[in-house]
Amino acid sequence: MKTKILRSAAALPLLAVASPALASSTVDSDSTDKDRVVVIGHPDAVGTAPEAQGPAGMMGDHVHHAGEFMLGLTWSHERHDGANYTGTRKASDAEIAAAGFTVRAKSMTMDMVMAHVMYAPNERITLMAMPMWMRMEMTMLGIAMPPMGTDHGGHHTLMPGETMTHAVSGIGDTKLGALVALSRAPKLSAHAGLLVSAPTGSVSRKNDDGSYVHYGMQPGSGTWDLEPSLTLRGKLTDTLSWGAQASGVIRLDHTNRSGYALGDRVAASVWTAARLDDRFSLSARLSYSDQGKIRGHYDGPHNHLSPPDRQANYGGQMVEAGLGANAVIARGLTLGAEANLPIHQDLNGFQLRKDFGLNFNISQTF
């Protein structure tokens, strides 16, 4: 997978260089006011067309006009609940216990608050900075008697049927980078993105007994990551538009300072949006993601008695359907909301399935 992502990342700057004719004909500060309104993703359209921004769950979906500045805030919520699954099938507690686990995850929620700062110094480039804050909460369920001589306390000594809830929160990683406009044509706009994720989030959070928390509950990745993307947007009619985006996350470090690295990730989304009036639009989106298993291993005290404590129980493939809405409150001020429901999940190892996701954002363009 990593080779494929690297090739895709390398292709993005080549695409920018290979399409000067397309870009020069559409990235033009002399375009008419009428053109500025109808171009998908054009900042003048941000103030008048609710679908000028993509669904609330998207990132890097639009570019800005020279001199434009945007401040935004996004809140994302995910819930995972119920039985554990392996691949696409439900796993019984007896099967999980037979694999050597005495405790499993019963439910988990993840909340992320991300700030968006975007500025376009010229027609071609839009700069981005996105710091974030994370909170994860997990409830564990005892499914088997803990082995004799277990040294660790907390949820790893739960009796069958007992539950315990624990949470971790803190600053996450920070994304920095740019979007490069390739086309602003009314019927087809395109831009390439390249972000770098800086490891500002902690990967050393520990339980009360001194052992590391589950890998998936650390607020950060602990690695420098490269995040390339390519986004296409277009208009079918004056009120109906479409979009498509391919993106990836490439872990540039083999391990982080705690001894491991999250898996690489590829993702793709397609969506359509219908403008109901000058201030309101609805969207429908289909997305796919594939994330690899965790590499490496904690380099300090950690547990092995629940699936979230082992690297093989992370990652997998997912297909989700999303329904969203955007509303323009005032010129340049946009609200967005999107709900996502998984329709296919093929999970590595033993994991909770995702139940649903919610995304809300607010942004002001100046």
In brief:
Helices cover 11% and strands 51% of the residues. It is mostly beta strands and 366 residues long. The protein has one domain: Porin (Beta Barrel).
What would your notes on this structure say?
With 366 residues, the protein is mainly beta. The protein has a single domain, classed as monomeric porin ompg (Porin, Beta Barrel). It has five helices and 16 strands. The strands form two sheets. It has an eleven-stranded antiparallel barrel with strand order 1-3-4-7-8-9-10-12-13-15-16. A hairpin with a 5-residue loop joins strand 3 and strand 4. The chain is elongated and about 70 Å long. It starts with a helix and ends with a strand. The N terminus is likely disordered.
Question: What topology emerges from the helices and strands here?
Answer:
Elements lengths: L1 H17 L1 H7 L6 H6 L4 H4 L22 E19 L1 E2 L2 H6 L4 E17 L5 E6 L1 E11 L20 E9 L2 E12 L2 E11 L26 E11 L4 E12 L8 E2 L3 E13 L2 E12 L3 E2 L19 E15 L2 E33 L1
Antiparallel strand pairs: 1-2, 1-3, 1-16, 3-4, 3-5, 4-7, 5-6, 7-8, 8-9, 9-10, 10-12, 11-14, 12-13, 13-15, 15-16
- Quaternary state of this entry equals single chain
CATH topology: Porin
- H/E order of the elements? HHHHEEHEEEEEEEEEEEEEE
Beta strand count: 16
| Low-confidence segments | 1-26, 28-47
CATH superfamily: monomeric porin ompg
Give the end-to-end Cα distance, rounded to a whole number of Å: 40 Å
CATH architecture: Beta Barrel
Number of DSSP helical runs: 5
Strand order of the largest sheet: 1-3-4-7-8-9-10-12-13-15-16
Report the sheet with the most strands, covering strand number, pairing sense and barrel closure.
Answer: 11 strands, antiparallel, barrel
* Helix-residue proportion: 10-25%
Instruction: Identify the overall geometry.
Output: elongated
The radius of gyration is 22 Å
Query: Please, how many domains?
Result: 1
How much beta, percentage-wise?
over 45%
